[in-house]
Amino acid sequence: MQKLIIYGPAKLMGEIEVEGAKNAVLPILTASILAENKVIITNVPDIADVKHTLEILKYLGCKVLFENNTVVVDSRSIKKFVIPPEYTKLMRSSILFMGALLSKFKKVELSNQTGGCEIGQRPIDLHILAFRHLGIDVSEYDSRIICKCEKIKSGEIFLPIPSVGATENIILASIFCDDKIVIKNAAKEPEIADLCHFLNKLGAKIKGAGTHIIKIEGVKKLKNEEVVHRVIPDRIVAGTYLCAVAACGEEVVLRGVFPRHLDSILHILKSAGCKIKESKNEIWIKKEGRLKGGQRITTHYYPGFPTDLQAPVCSAFVVADGVTIIKETIFENRFKHIPELIKMGADIHVEKDIAVINGVEKLRGCRVFARDLRGGAALFVAGLCAEGVTEVFEAEYIDRGYEKIEEKYSCLGAKIIREKGE
Ligand SMILES: CC(=O)N[C@H]1[C@@H](OP(=O)(O)OP(=O)(O)OC[C@H]2O[C@@H](n3ccc(=O)[nH]c3=O)[C@H](O)[C@@H]2O)O[C@H](CO)[C@@H](O)[C@@H]1O
Ligand SMILES: C=C(OP(=O)(O)O)C(=O)O
Question: In which pathway does it act (predicted)?
Answer without folding.
Answer: Cell wall biogenesis; peptidoglycan biosynthesis
